[in-house]
Structures are given as structure tokens and as C-alpha cells.
# Entry
Amino acid sequence: MSVMATILANGRFFTESGEVGFQDCMVVEGDTIVHVGSETDTVVREAKAAGATVHDVQQRYVLPGFIDGHMHLLQFGQSLQKLDLDGCRNLEDIRARIKNYARQHPDVPRILCKGWMQTMTDSPVLASMLDDIDPRPIFIDAKDLHSVWCNSTALRELAVEDKPDPAGGTINRDTNGKPSGLLNEAAVFSLVWPHLARVASREDKMNALRAAIAAYTAHGYTGLVEMAMDDNAWDALLELRQREQLPIRIAAHWLIVPSEDEAANLAQVDRAIALHKQYNLSTSPDLRIAGIKVICDGVIDACTAALLEPYSNNGSSCEPLWPAAKLAPVVQRAVQAGLQCALHAIGDATVRTALDVLEKHGSRDGRHRIEHLEMTTPEDARRLGQLGVTASVQPVHSDPDILQAWPSLIGPERCRRAFAYKDFLDGGAPLALGSDSPTAPFNPLPNLYIATTRRSARQPESQETVNPNFALPLAAAITAATAGAAYACFADSITGRLQPGLKADFVVVDMEWSPEKLLQARVRETWFAGKRVYCA
# Structure
């Protein structure tokens, strides 16, 4: 045993037998776990005799490092500097908060906001509602990141007046055809995001990435899956890695922006294929291109998720942004090149389309994924397991406090099928937990609380639940947030479990082993590759 060994003792080490008990000791040599077991084991005695450092974890729980199975890294880092509108109840609250922020920040070139929800503003949102607040461009992200509300200065900066609606997106207009202030779906991904990335300096982007990674490390994450990668963020990430060692493992999915031109869609896939050949599990395991991401529909709150039955509130229907005929060539090209496909599908009609395409063009070995899965039929919940498709879910989106409008939008009966995580698990689907930050809070412990109790982390005093029959057992939820997320991006041969031979990525948590107590749990230490990179 090398003198570089560290013995972590007097703890409760979560292993695959975590349902029935825990080990009390772990030995790390260099960046690798070499033993998990009892303090009386021979390996531990030999390590002590060889001069290993002993680290007392004081009876705390030691879990594999959390891996955020679905997030947006650059947007999250940038969001840390944005004005948060969470808690605003109406237009008056929003205007007052922005006005106050503008007074306090006279030197920022743009006023960037986040956290707006459609329920805060009853009438359609217009640029004119913001124009008298401040002359600078104002960009307001919807909480789900599928819409951006702009003032007139921001619209002029985007130069959208003479632009046609992008495929799968909308530039809302008034009766005279002028942009009215709201951009939806692909107009956000193909116009707003690239513009704000271009006007941000390289240093600004690297600082945002650095801040995002630091925040993740402090909350117990040792890995993440970035779900909307593009050249702007990728170039900044590569430069950041050249400058400093990153204490987190990053697998990225390249965002495919929809176009009516199939050749343009396939050219984006080819870009991902080229990068994957250079940055893959063999050549660059801690920063790599894992696959492609396709946003196949919108969200329930904006009535842009494609459902099998019309919306209850207005009888409207919408088609997936990527119908099967358009999606299939993109998936086929990626699969043939050995890339994973991650398909955003929130509505049950889109989930069915995604499964149909993956059944025809994917393979179980490809570990393809469907993201979100907020509405599913029982039949399609079973198909996930039958096809080996990972259910990549974000319990924080099922917080009862943010679903108040759902019964009126889709009806109480259909709400009973919302966020059917236990169905996916029982059907044999691999399960990966994520946060979808910055659309939602990224702290893994409240995420686990919602997954296991189906109660609100935003309003913990509330007894309201969302389909508690679909709650996950605690051990299953923790596994989905660690080993499941690692499996979902082919990192399970490196990390995700406390197991000899894997990297020593783990987190020390003050907690009680009870779903109801997870909101009181706190991350005390984060270890990455055998080194402590965060201590509370």
C-alpha cells in the first residue's frame, strides 16, 4: 500500500447494499478507491501500518459524488449574475424589481433577468410593458428557458424585425407584423442564446463557467451532463481547461437547432461527430462530446408540449417540433457514428414519437436517452425499459408549488400521469436524475427530497403532493443521481459508485437516512479524484 493512501473511517459508506446497510470504511490510493469495507479488514490495517492518512468522517454519510444528468453549464454560470424574478406575483412586481436592479447596476450594458413564469403575467407580454423602465436592452428568461421576453431595445439589438420565424420557433408579432416582445422555442435557441454568447467576452464566459463549476463543487457534484453545447461554450470550456484543472467530469451533448433543410440539420450532427472523434471517453474522459441533443417539443405551461389529447383550457393542440420524418435522419446519422441521442420530450405525444424513432434507429448498446418525460402513457413508460432507453428526469420540475396551473391546462385526470418515475423504474428503464439548471434549482438534496416525497422543496410547510404513487425509494433516488447518471453518459466505468477500481469521487453529507429529512441535509465535503476540493 502506497503512503499516498487515505483511510476514510468512522462513516456510513453507501454501496449497492445501501438499502440494508452501509460499510464503515473506505481506502483511497491516489485518485482511486482501493477498498470499501470494515475498519478491521486486513487492507485497512496494512494501510495504517504503511503510514496512510486517516480521515475521520464523524459518522456522516459518504455517497458517490453527485452527477447532474441534465443541465446547461454556461447558461447556469451566466444566470448567477442575472436578476431573479422568482417570487414576483404580477407585472407590477416584475417592473418594480427590474427598476430597482437598474438603479443599483448603472454600468451593466444589458439587464438580464431569469425566473419569469407565464402565470405571473395574465395577458400576453409585450416589449412596451418594459420600455419605460430603462433604455438598455432587457432580456427576461422564462423559468423553463423556452421563452424570452424582450424590451424594444433588445429586439432592435437582435435585429429580428425582418427575420422569418426559425423552424420550430416563433417571433411573436403585433397586428402590423412588428416583433411584439416575446420569442419562443427555437427562436430562443437559434437567435437569443447565440446573440448573448457573441456579445459576452471570452473572459466573461470563462468566469461564468468557473463560477458554475465552483457552485456545483460546493453542492457535492463531481460530474455533470451538459445538454445544449455549442461552439461558443465549447471553445470557452477548452480554454478554461488549458488554464486550470477542472474538479468535475463533463460529458456534453451538442444541441441540434431545427431547420427545414435536412442537409443543415445533418451538418450540425456532423459537427458533433467530428468533435466526438477528438474528445471522447478514450481521449478526453473528463471533457468530451457524448452525443447530440434534440429539443423535440416545448413545455406544458406554455401549451407548447405536444400531447395526445388537446389542452383542456383552450382546446389547442401542437405538433412536436421534430416530427418523426424530420427527426429520424438526424438520429440515424448520430447512431451510425456511435453518438448518444438525447431527445427532449415533455408531452406524451412527443415521448411516443421519440420512442418510435429510437426503436427503429437506435440500439440498446447506445444508451440513448429521453429527457424530461413529464407526461407519459403507461404503455410508453414500459417501452423505455423494453428498449433500454434511459429515463433522464428532473424531480425539481415536479415541485407542487410550480404546477398550480396544470389542472386547468391538461385536466385533473391527465395530471395523474405526471412525472411517473416509479413506473419507469419498475419497467426496467435506466434512471438518471438531473436538475435542468438554470431552469430550476440545482442543489441535489432538495431534488432528492422531491423525488422521494413528491412534496414541495419551495414550500416545505405544504402537505401537497404530486402523485405520491410515483415516488422513488431513497436508495433508488440516490443511485439515479450518481450511478444512474454515470451509466447514462457511459461514465460508469470511471465513477458513480463507491467501488474498488473506480475514481475516488465522493461527497460527505450531514443527513438522516429519511426522505422527510433531506431538506435539512448539508454537504460537508466534496472529493474529486482522491482530493478534497470543497470543505464547508
Observations:
- The mean pLDDT is 95.
- The chain is about 30% helix and 25% strand.
- The two ends are 30 Å apart (CA to CA).
- Residues 34 and 372 are 36 Å apart (CA to CA).
